[in-house]
Amino acid sequence: MRTIAVILKKGGSGKTTTAVNIATVLHQKGKRILLVDLDPQANATLCTGLDPTSLQYNINDLFKNINIKPADVILKTSFGLNIIPSHPDLALTEAGMKATQVGILNGLFEPIKDDYDYIIIDTPPSDSYLTVSALAYVKEVIIPVQAHFLALQGLTQVMISIDQVRKGLNPKLKILGILPTMVNQRTNISREVLDQLNTHYKDLLFPETIDYSVKHPESSLAGVPIVIYDPKHSGALSYTKLTESIL
Fold first, then answer.
1. Which candidate, 114, 105, 112, places its Cα nearest to that of 139?
2. Which of 22, 17, 32, 75 is nearest to 50 (CA)?
3. Residue 242: which of 16, 31, 26 has the closest Cα?
4. What pLDDT digit, counting tens, does each position of 108-130 carry?
């Protein structure tokens, strides 16, 4: 089983969109996929057409109730993808977490480790115990970077965090790739960010980029990934090609 976290300590960089679409393409290709929404904002849950406030169980119940098992929480979306949904209450749980609890995901997911080919985790856009927990659990990381100066700062912070986790909690952690997102080749800032990424992280860059498009928020509003919402759109084609390279 492969375990992959999608991470960047900055919101609005296409992190959730990337996690949801990669998981969906893998599912379309016949892989056994579990998408885990580890973000208290529950964006991955919303983007797959589920209302986090109306569900019986969510990932917070796994953290809080030892009698709740992953099988109790896993739901199937309208397009067949298995997901552990999130809930805003997860923020309260995180606030009470201690450093000694960052390995919690290993125990939580142990009962289902043979049920899936891939577990894809959407992480919070912050430096938090939940983010560290994901890094301590997974073996691979995808870093989506918005074509914006502030996202480069977030990338620097993520690289530091990954290095720290490698030195302690998870020596096998590796970067699967850096994915430029929301790219508009007509703007100077997009071209500059791509130049910076090529200069400093060339060996880690995915060859694919995700262009800026209103279709991405449209698909999120519709509650389906863009690879289903508009499979011939350039963003859908890029995510499909990206996922094929991951395979």
1. 105
2. 75
3. 26
4. 999 998 999 999 999 998 878 99
SS (H, E, C) the chain: CEEEEECCCCCCCCHHHHHHHHHHHHHHCCCCEEEEECCCCCHHHHHCCCCHHHCCCCHHHHHHCCCCCHHHHCEECCCCCEEECCCCCHHHHHHCCCHHHCCHHHHHHHHHCCCCCEEEEECCCCCCHHHHHHHHHCCEEEEEEECCHHHHHHHHHHHHHHHHHHCCCCCCCEEEEEEEECECCCCHHHHHHHHHHHHHHHHHECCCCCECCCHHHHHHHHCCCHHHHCCCCHHHHHHHHHHHHHC
Q: How far apart are CA 117 and CA 119, in angstroms?
A: 7
> What pLDDT shows up at residue 77?
96
* C-alpha–C-alpha distance, residues 227 and 232, integer Å: 8
**pLDDT at position 153, please?**
81
- According to the model, what pLDDT value does residue 226 have? 96
Adjacency order of strands within the sheet including 82-84: 75-76, 82-84, 33-37, 118-122, 2-6, 140-146, 174-181
pLDDT tens column, 164-203: 999 998 999 999 999 999 898 888 888 898 999 999 999 9
Whether the pLDDT of residue 30 is over 90: the answer is: yes
Token pair of 114 as six digits? 């043979």
Residue 144 is given by DSSP the state E
Residue 28 phi/psi, 5-degree rounding, is -60, -30
> What was the pLDDT predicted at 66?
87
